[in-house]
Specification:
The chain has 269 residues and is of the alpha/beta class. It is 39% helix and 16% strand. Helix 7 links the parallel strand 7 and strand 8.
Length: 269
């Protein structure tokens, strides 16, 4: 069965795709992945993502933001990121949030950059593409301060359990599920939470080239994840929810179209 899916988190501008990006995109379309949201993690990446999306209208869109790893560079990039958010192909602010697992940027700098990006996205009337790792308390507290001003938010690459899920749902967030759900070891809390995600809040993503699903067979020689593997992730989500893969595809596609305001190019155009 060839499902219709939207990958809401693909790092298609990553260097690992430089040599075969067109082939990767073609495989995604052949697999039923009709659209991708390309993640912007810093200013240079956000510019590149927006440029790539501009030449593939109706198939690619992008985000513009500064990942918490790069929070120290946000102030210098703020005006240019705000300008990117005014472009029609740029459909969300971020990737933004907090990451206390790596701590590549000081935590106070992360918090300041996160709050500023929420302000910028709210001013642009664009939703936010959110990252959180080992920083749940501060992440929720900052979001609470800004949530009323935001048009929407999605917890990208959600890996938490029921407690985190309930906190995010209370903030009216959407939930993005990656191939983490295919890992019965690291992903057990997520696997237990997936059946409790409301249908109208669920979206799926690969985070390619990262997070190759652990149970994918055959394993690519490169061990690189790519958007064409999204149906494999959606099938795992469907199994955990006791739903058909077709139902999960229809639901997540409808949610992504509404959340990001997408107009997908017809298959035969």
């Amino acid at each position: 069965m060839n499902l219709t899916l939207i990958d809401i988190g693909s790092n298609l501008t990553h260097d690992s795709f430089a040599g075969d990006r067109d082939a990767v995109m073609a495989r995604a379309l052949d697999a039923g992945v009709r659209a991708q949201i390309i993640t912007g993690a810093d200013l240079a990446g956000s510019v590149q993502a927006a440029a790539l999306a501009a030449v593939h209208p109706g198939v690619l869109w992008s985000t513009a933001g500064t990942h918490p790893h790069h929070a120290q560079s946000f102030d210098a990039a703020r005006a240019e990121l705000a300008a990117l958010l005014r472009l029609p192909q740029v459909v969300a602010g971020g990737e933004c949030g907090l990451d206390y697992y790596r701590d590549f940027s000081p935590r106070d700098v992360q918090r300041a950059a996160f709050a500023a990006q929420l302000e910028t996205a709210a001013a642009a009337r664009k939703p936010v593409f959110l990252h959180q790792r080992d920083a749940h308390g501060d992440f929720v507290a900052i979001l609470k301060d800004f949530r009323r001003a935001l048009v929407g938010g999605v917890a990208h690459c959600f890996t938490g359990g029921r407690t985190e899920l309930e906190d995010y749902l209370a903030l009216d967030l959407h939930i993005g599920v990656t191939g983490w759900v295919n890992d019965e070891r690291r992903g057990q809390s997520l696997r237990e939470a997936v059946p409790h995600i409301p249908s109208d809040r669920l979206m799926v993503e690969t985070d390619a080239p990262y997070l190759l699903p652990r149970d994918l067979k055959p394993v690519p020689k490169s061990r690189r994840n790519e958007p064409s593997f999204l149906p494999h992730i959606a099938a795992a989500v469907a199994n955990l929810r006791g739903e058909s893969a077709a139902d999960v595809a229809e639901t997540t596609t409808r949610n992504a179209v509404r959340f990001f305001g997408l107009k997908i190019r017809p298959k035969d155009s």
